[in-house]
Design goal:
The protein has a single domain (26-271), classed as Rossmann fold, CATH 3.40.50. The protein has helices at 4-13, 39-53, 58-62, 67-82, 99-105, 120-133, 173-181, 206-220, 230-237; strands spanning 29-31, 88-93, 110-117, 141-145, 158-164, 184-198, 228-229, 241-245, 263-271. The chain is globular. With 274 residues, the protein is an alpha/beta fold. It has 9 helices and 9 strands. Strands 1, 2, 3, 4, 5, 6, 7, 8 and 9 form a 9-stranded mixed β-sheet that branches. α5 (99-105) links the parallel β2 and β3 (110-117). α4 (67-82) crosses α5. It binds S-adenosylmethionine. Residues 35, 38, 41, 45, 94-97, 99-100, 117-119, 122, 147-149, 164-166, 169, 224 line the site of S-adenosylmethionine (SAM).
Length: 274
Amino acid sequence: MASHSDVMLDKLDAPFRDYLPFDPSTLRVQRLNSGASNAAELANMDAFCARILDGYTLGRYLNAKRGIAATAAGIETLLARAGVKPTGRILEFGAGTCKLSAVLSRSPDVVSVDCMDFSEVLLREIAPRVISWLGGDLAKFRFLVGDMNRIDEVQDRYDWIVCFGAVHHLTVPEHFFVRLRERLLPGGQVLCLDEPAFPEITLPFEAIRRYRTAIHTARVAGENEHAYKLSEYRRFAGPGYAFRDLALTPGERRIRTFSTGPFQTNFVLTPAGA
Ligand SMILES: C[S@@+](CC[C@H](N)C(=O)[O-])C[C@H]1O[C@@H](n2cnc3c(N)ncnc32)[C@H](O)[C@@H]1O
């Protein structure tokens, strides 16, 4: 019998628009705000989604057919190894394709998942297909269209607030984490995965130089792209949280690829005094 991944990989070869294993009228989408603080970045993201829908497969977008399946499997392995198990009511910010939430939603201990992104087309058209591929429970999902820099406009409170590669897109991360605390239920925690991070000492690697140049170019184009050091992520969380680095030893940090340069960092924040 074909495994779930085999079925999924078949679908990755089909034109993306054709893969619609859900009734779009059942999607729960709520608009919070216009996300206008990042207009240039949002325009790029929407144009990118249109290209995917107009004939690219997501496999081509990922530039490696098995990328999304491998990432989902990697998330499961990392969380199991670290003993981190988000349950209850979950909010993902900068959710994009929602692959992290898709993986989490499979657990019967997860009650609901709210996914926030500023791109409505990404949430309506791309994310539900990815959630379906990954065997996520679409019925648990609600999609919130809005600017994550205005996280205080989210009405509800959550047991877990999670993200995958979104912190480095925030305008002022220090302020964000202070406001995020107010969106947590008692005992709630924050999980941040896949943030690009540089070591404390700037190493003269060509890959790092190229990555910094790419970030600079994106910023000149109006995007909120940043390159941070590990210590800066700790500083952003500030004294309001206990910071748990999910790499057990420095050697466990995976260099993403030689073409991109930075490490991938993953951490859990627990409100101090909670
Ligand atoms: C590097 S991608 C993260 C990948 C995403 N978590 C996923 O799994 O596909 C950054 C995501 O953050 C979203 N984003 C960037 N700035 C945002 C903002 N100010 N408010 C909401 N979403 C934003 C982008 O649309 C994109 O989906």
